[in-house]
Design a protein that fits this description.
The complex is a heterodimer of chains A (about 500) and B (about 375). Chain A is an alpha+beta fold and about 500 residues long. Chain A contains 18 helices and 13 strands. Chain B has two domains: about 220 residues, MetI-like fold, CATH 1.10.3720.10; about 60 residues, no CATH class. The longest helix of chain B has about 35 residues. Chain B starts with a helix and ends in a 6-residue tail after the last helix. Classes of the chains: A alpha+beta (about 500), B mainly alpha (about 375). Chain A: It is a multi-pass membrane protein.
């Protein structure tokens, strides 16, 4: 606004004029920052709310609040100590045989209301998994509950609920963790080392449970004189429900409830032995643990992550080698058909939508038996965009380099690998990260080509999540999956920001 | 001469992987798609040539017409919105102030994350009882306070500018310093009025709008734009603005400062500088951005596939999705129609690019 300078009336002193202009500059900067902050909320808001809500027990809570117990140090501390009580592991939590957990609930009973203690019960929790998996043992069928009053102030009484997990064996000795293997006449378990051992049920309590235990159940065994005896199953969660009478109300508990029902008289705690991971990152743990392949029992989500990494790695490796070769040839060599190749194979290819080739490539890869990651990789082996990028880069490099190499008697191949390629570091990094990002975020071709749910990449798997859980509104799982899948590219972006910003051309064309 | 020949063979050696995969997975595929589009292929039979019947079938398919309409509306609206939005943001970002690097990278976030992730987050935001509806409810609740604030702001600004002008100072209507004072004043007045109870928050029922349903914006009885598609337009604009903004920023940095100095000397207002200097100088970049935008938006697929059954099919089907769903239809899939639709999509995109280059030539593309 230097224009204002000329218009300032002559009777103003220079100092006053400077003050006027300075004031205006400051105000302009202030407005600019305000605008930038608003836009930051706009661009980052969806990610931040999604991230915060993915930690909540119920991301659909209405009205939404930013008061998230999962992020409160006090409750994280209690989750840790409950996890330690339940299993000795403050991170993973869970309930293991022989352990005892105390959980406190405060109930307000005004004079006119019933003065009875609350009703407490464990309830079953079965994961809604991608494929039905065998029923896991539930804490409800094993653990014993005890309620006692521990404090009273005014008309509020505090009760201590004790959850006691039983030991099913009388043997003593070293305890080992194992997983039950496929059922036959005898109960068998696979030790962490891979060894399969027979399991003895030496007490009536243990024998009573033998038909309820399924393959894949995590258990604790005692290695004693009589071989391996069953100490009891391991529970990942201990869901607890507390109900009070009409007129009473629950005013506090060790952890805040996951659900309130029945006008605040019925509280459900999804897990009273969460540990930090089971409390703050419950949805993230579920994404890995509750999506198991029915055949192999492996975590599907984990497979998807691995597939995405493999695909991205393959794409990057191929692009770095082949795109730079092709780019260099197009930039620096003279040969017949050069323009035709550039126009036809680089520019035209980028303009034609990939849907045109869908049927043909699908049929071709199916005939070659390549409807998997390798087929996906092969069909996008050399990205036209990458060739374009490398061509632009090599065109900008000084010719003297090649000329001096030629004078020294180097062949074209030597010149390329010894002289030009080492100089291309920045362009190769840019190429590698755009290819990684492109492969990681790729959706259309993986959706077309990958047909087995264990061979999906993360994007296809996530859209599958939507189909399966979106209807049930289980957005905790969906958001957790979305956040997890965004993390690698965000890390890449934070580290290599400069290169992203330089080569945004690729992602502009994304749908 | 022999050196020339050896260079030719080396060049083709270097290009071989690229040329072979392009030939197999692009040109061969393209030719075969063209061939399928004239046959009765359904993935399981041996293709027989049947002439242009697939094209006629496709053009007669109401679902295809809907897809075509949706794609064109989506492409035009989104390209317009994202180009204008990116331009304005680039102009704002082109100021040299501290912390600009931080803002640039923060805003770039939507561009690097996958469209699947962003679509899932938007599906969650736009639920019936989601954050979007919650924010609209909040707006309705606090509307009296906001409107009071804006009204007082306007009045104060008007008063101040007139006062300064009476003192023969050259104050513009949007003078930032005066506006800051006005904003503080308006805040104080609104707080006072709220405290005394003259204006306050209203009681409103929660805004309960279902976005992913069979709802349409109609013009003269013709269904133009569906509400689910509108949500995708918002999402897509959100995703692409940061990338396009970078192109504009690069373009802005190439505009010689002398032009603005000359405009200043002529006494141009900021608006005049934007429309008379910035926009014309950015024309090449703008055409590039529009071309890229049209190519990208015409191929929009990810969002539709992720939302899938959550919205009625007609509201979201696009050409790309039509091709996909016809190829993988249960039973005998009309692959010939899918191929024909894909060829039509390719022709539309090529025509758009051609028109762009023919009538708006620029050095940037």
């Amino acid at each position: 606004m230097t224009a204002a300078l000329e218009q300032v009336p002559a009777h103003q002193t220079p100092q006053a004029r400077d003050r006027w202009l300075a004031r205006r500059r400051w105000a302009r900067a202030g407005w600019l920052y305000a605008f930038m902050l608003v836009m930051s909320f706009f661009f980052l808001g969806p990610f931040v709310t999604g991230l915060l809500s993915s930690l909540k027990d119920n991301p659909n809570e209405y009205p939404p609040t930013l008061n998230i117990p999962q992020l409160t140090p006090q409750f994280i501390g209690r989750a840790w100590s409950l996890g330690v009580q339940g299993s000795g592991d403050g991170w993973q939590g869970g309930l293991t045989p022989g352990r005892q957990v105390s959980f406190e609930v405060s109930v307000k009973s005004p004079p006119g209301a019933p003065q009875t203690p609350p009703t407490v019960a464990l309830f079953p929790y079965q994961p809604v998994s991608l494929v039905a998996i065998a029923r896991q043992a539930q804490a409800r069928d094993y653990a014993a509950l005890k309620t006692e009053e521990v404090a009273r102030s005014g008309d509020t009484r505090t009760y201590r609920v004790t959850v006691q997990s039983p030991v099913l064996t009388r043997q003593s000795g070293q305890t080992v963790r194992a997983v039950l293997s496929a059922p036959d006449a005898n109960l068998r378990a696979q030790l962490p080392g891979g060894e399969v051992v027979p399991v003895t049920l030496d007490t009536p309590e243990a024998q009573a449970k033998q038909y309820e235990l399924n393959e894949g159940q995590a258990v604790e065994l005692v290695r004693g004189a009589a071989g391996y005896t069953l100490r009891g199953p391991l529970f990942e969660r201990t869901p607890l429900q507390v109900d009070v009478q009409r007129g009473q109300s629950i005013v506090g508990s060790t952890l805040p409830p996951s659900d309130r029902q029945n006008f605040g008289r019925s509280f459900a705690y999804r897990n009273v032995t969460p540990g930090v991971l089971g409390y703050s990152f419950n949805n993230y743990r579920r994404a890995f643990n509750e999506t198991r392949d029915s055949k192999s029992g492996r975590s599907l989500f984990f497979s998807w992550v691995m597939n995405s990494f493999l695909y991205a790695f393959l794409r990057v490796a191929a692009a770095v080698v082949f795109c730079s070769l092709a780019g260099y040839a197009l930039a620096r060599m003279t040969f017949p058909g050069k323009n035709l190749i550039f126009l036809g194979a680089v520019l035209f290819v980028q303009m034609v939508p990939s849907q045109v080739n869908l049927v043909s490539n699908y049929v071709l890869l199916k005939d070659l038996n390549l409807l998997n990651i390798w087929g996906l990789w092969l069909s996008g082996l050399v990205a036209a965009g990458g060739v374009f990028l490398m061509k632009q880069f090599f065109e900008g490099m000084p010719r003297e380099l090649e000329e001096s190499a030629a004078i020294d008697g180097a062949s074209t191949l030597t010149t390329f690998f010894r002289v030009m390629l080492p100089q291309a570091g920045p362009a190769l990094i840019a190429l590698a990260i755009t290819q990684f990002q492109g492969a990681w975020n790729d959706f259309f071709w993986p959706l077309v080509i990958l047909r087995e749910n264990s061979s999906f990449t993360l994007t296809v798997g996530l859209s599958n999540f939507r189909e399966l859980y979106g209807g049930q509104g289980d957005y905790g799982l969906i958001l957790a999956g979305a956040v997890l899948s965004a993390i690698p590219v965000i890390i890449l972006f934070v580290v290599f920001q400069r290169y992203f910003v330089d080569t945004g051309a690729d992602s502009a064309v994304k749908g | 001469m022999s050196q020339q020949r050896s260079q030719t063979s080396t060049a083709y050696l270097f290009l071989a992987p690229f040329l072979i995969t392009t030939a197999v997975f692009f040109f061969y595929a393209f030719g075969r798609a063209l061939y399928y589009s004239f046959t009765d292929f359904n993935l399981f039979n041996t293709p027989q040539l049947i002439g242009v019947k697939p094209y006629a079938d496709v053009l007669n398919d109401p679902s295809f017409r809907r897809a075509l309409g949706n794609s064109l509306v989506f492409a035009l609206v989104t390209t317009t919105l994202q180009t204008i939005g990116a331009l304005l943001m680039a102009v704002a970002l082109n100021n040299k102030i501290r912390g600009m690097g931080f803002f640039r990278s923060a805003w770039y976030m939507p561009s690097i994350t996958s469209s699947v992730v962003i679509t899932l987050i938007f599906l969650w935001l736009f639920q019936r009882r989601g954050i979007a509806n919650y924010l609209i409810t909040q707006w309705q609740i606090y509307q009296p306070l906001v409107l009071t604030f804006l009204g007082v702001l306007l009045a104060l600004q008007l008063g101040q500018v007139l006062w300064e002008r009476a003192r023969r100072l050259p104050a513009g209507w949007l003078d930032p310093a005066l506006a800051a004072v006005s904003a503080l004043g308006a805040l104080a007045v609104t707080a006072l009025l709220a405290w005394t109870g003259v204006v306050g928050a209203r009681e409103v029922p929660p805004f309960d709008y279902q976005y992913f349903a069979d709802k349409w914006i109609e013009v003269g009885g013709v269904r133009v734009l569906s509400v689910p598609l509108l949500v995708i337009i918002i999402q897509n604009t959100f995703t692409t603005i940061p990338t396009l903004m970078l192109f504009f920023l690069a373009g802005l940095q190439n505009i010689p400062g002398a032009l603005y100095e000359a405009a200043d000397i002529d006494g141009a207002t900021p608006w005049q500088k934007l429309t008379r200097v910035t926009v014309p100088m950015l024309r090449p970049v703008t055409f590039f951005v529009v071309t890229v935008g049209l190519i990208g938006t015409m191929q929009m697929f990810d969002q539709v596939a992720v939302i899938g059954s959550a919205a009625p099919p007609d509201t979201l089907v696009t050409l790309a999705y039509y091709v996909y769903s016809n190829t993988f239809k249960a039973g005998a899939a009309p692959v010939n129609m899918a191929s024909a639709a894909a060829i039509i999509l390719a022709l539309i995109i090529l025509a758009m690019v051609f028109v762009q280059r023919r009538f708006f030539p620029s050095e940037a593309t």
